[in-house]
């Protein structure tokens, strides 16, 4: 069965190249005919791994000319996912499966709600990739991807064996929401502060008190949302992630400094929205969100 992949960006290309080189059929779905023409001019995707570039001539279609789809990896940013899913809805076959690779929370639910007959799986990944040019992606950080059913525990799909075959490190999770919440909380602790202090992750070690206060507020939120296991030991893991990624700029910092749209609405924005929904007044989070939004607006001006 063909793996259709929407979005030939960083993670979409990384998945597409690894699946294709292990002999699996892959089809790329590009935004429109112009983007398809650009792809055809580039002659395929290039994946740079351990400094070595490999070229892959994968079949591609524009979203509007997509063949019928049984299995789809949605590899766009969270803010593009609901519209992309709506665009592809008429092409999804009965019993189709959709894998949502978005960071944060909120977009997965919006997609699942708009596609009631489709099995929506969510993924949470610690792999790292970036685009060094159009259709050229660098595999920058080995990691792991957890997959699970958004609607709760269910049997793992048989195609996980294909991920194994493609060398994509993964596990099936019976509680993917917990994983997504935990990653969201870690991102909410690190990413906004890295933007506001304009620093690498490691420099956040100078802001222990702020991290501690933030983690307490995030834990309160997680508890209120029924995510107590995602709340446990949050500060300790945040400090571990800061140490492990000390030399890096967070993804949000990179987005802001390069003038790109951020996924804030699906990270700290989502956290604040959920706090309000649960009747919690978490001034620490609200204040951070406001300062972050002001900084993002200033960066765009
Ligand atoms: P990206 O911006 O590199 O790629 C997204 C691609 O989707 C772009 O090429 C864009 O043109 C395309 N796209 C958007 N809407 C489309 C549509 N309607 N039709 C066709 N194509 C469309 O993004 P990315 O870095 O690959 O991130 C994807 C998601 O994975 C994000 O939520 C991100 O937070 C998450 N993530 C990324 C990394 C990473 O290292 N890059 C790691 C973990 C999680
Ligand atoms: O996921 C991250 C990001 O930069 O988005 C880390 C490195 C974990 C920091 O939150």
TrEMBL record:
<dbReference type="InterPro" id="IPR013332">
    <property type="entry name" value="KPR_N"/>
</dbReference>
<comment type="function">
    <text>Catalyzes the NADPH-dependent reduction of ketopantoate into pantoic acid.</text>
</comment>
<dbReference type="Pfam" id="PF02558">
    <property type="entry name" value="ApbA"/>
</dbReference>
<dbReference type="GO" id="GO:0005737">
    <property type="term" value="C:cytoplasm"/>
</dbReference>
<protein>
    <recommendedName>
        <fullName>2-dehydropantoate 2-reductase</fullName>
        <ecNumber>1.1.1.169</ecNumber>
    </recommendedName>
</protein>
<dbReference type="GO" id="GO:0050661">
    <property type="term" value="F:NADP binding"/>
</dbReference>
<comment type="pathway">
    <text>Cofactor biosynthesis; (R)-pantothenate biosynthesis; (R)-pantoate from 3-methyl-2-oxobutanoate: step 2/2.</text>
</comment>
<feature type="domain" description="Ketopantoate reductase C-terminal">
    <location>
        <begin position="175"/>
        <end position="295"/>
    </location>
</feature>
<dbReference type="InterPro" id="IPR003710">
    <property type="entry name" value="ApbA"/>
</dbReference>
<dbReference type="Pfam" id="PF08546">
    <property type="entry name" value="ApbA_C"/>
</dbReference>
<dbReference type="InterPro" id="IPR008927">
    <property type="entry name" value="6-PGluconate_DH-like_C_sf"/>
</dbReference>
<keyword id="KW-0566">Pantothenate biosynthesis</keyword>
<feature type="domain" description="Ketopantoate reductase N-terminal">
    <location>
        <begin position="3"/>
        <end position="151"/>
    </location>
</feature>
<dbReference type="GO" id="GO:0015940">
    <property type="term" value="P:pantothenate biosynthetic process"/>
</dbReference>
<dbReference type="InterPro" id="IPR013328">
    <property type="entry name" value="6PGD_dom2"/>
</dbReference>
<dbReference type="GO" id="GO:0008677">
    <property type="term" value="F:2-dehydropantoate 2-reductase activity"/>
</dbReference>
<dbReference type="InterPro" id="IPR036291">
    <property type="entry name" value="NAD(P)-bd_dom_sf"/>
</dbReference>
<dbReference type="InterPro" id="IPR050838">
    <property type="entry name" value="Ketopantoate_reductase"/>
</dbReference>
<dbReference type="InterPro" id="IPR013752">
    <property type="entry name" value="KPA_reductase"/>
</dbReference>
<keyword id="KW-0521">NADP</keyword>
<keyword id="KW-0560">Oxidoreductase</keyword>
<comment type="similarity">
    <text>Belongs to the ketopantoate reductase family.</text>
</comment>
């Amino acid at each position: 069965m063909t793996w259709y992949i929407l979005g030939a960006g960083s993670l979409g290309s990384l998945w597409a190249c690894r699946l294709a080189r292990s002999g699996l059929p892959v089809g790329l779905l590009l935004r429109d005919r112009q983007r398809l023409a650009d792809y055809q001019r580039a002659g395929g995707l290039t994946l740079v791994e351990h400094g070595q570039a490999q070229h892959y001539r994968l079949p591609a279609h524009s979203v509007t000319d997509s063949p019928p789809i049984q299995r789809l990896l949605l590899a766009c940013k969270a803010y593009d996912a609901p519209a992309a899913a709506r665009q592809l809805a008429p092409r999804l076959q009965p019993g189709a499966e959709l894998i949502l690779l978005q960071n944060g929370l909120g977009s997965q639910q919006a997609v699942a709600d708009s596609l009631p007959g489709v099995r929506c799986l969510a993924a949470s990944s610690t792999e790292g990739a970036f685009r060094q040019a159009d259709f050229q992606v660098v595999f920058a950080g080995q990691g792991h991807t957890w997959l699970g059913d958004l609607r709760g525990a269910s049997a793992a799909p048989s195609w996980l064996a294909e991920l194994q075959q493609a060398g994509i490190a993964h596990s099936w999770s019976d509680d993917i929401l917990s994983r997504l919440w935990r990653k969201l909380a870690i991102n909410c602790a690190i990413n906004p502060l890295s933007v506001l202090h304009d620093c690498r992750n490691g420099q956040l070690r100078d802001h222990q008190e702020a991290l501690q206060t933030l983690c307490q507020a995030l834990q309160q939120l997680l508890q209120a949302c029924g995510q107590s296991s995602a709340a446990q030991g949050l500060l300790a893991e945040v400090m571990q992630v800061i140490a492990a990624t000390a030399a890096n700029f967070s993804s949000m910092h990179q987005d802001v400094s390069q003038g790109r749209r951020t996924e804030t609405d699906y990270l700290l924005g989502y956290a604040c929205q959920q706090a309000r929904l649960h009747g919690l007044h978490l001034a620490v989070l609200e204040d951070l969100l406001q300062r972050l939004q002001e900084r993002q607006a200033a960066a765009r001006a």
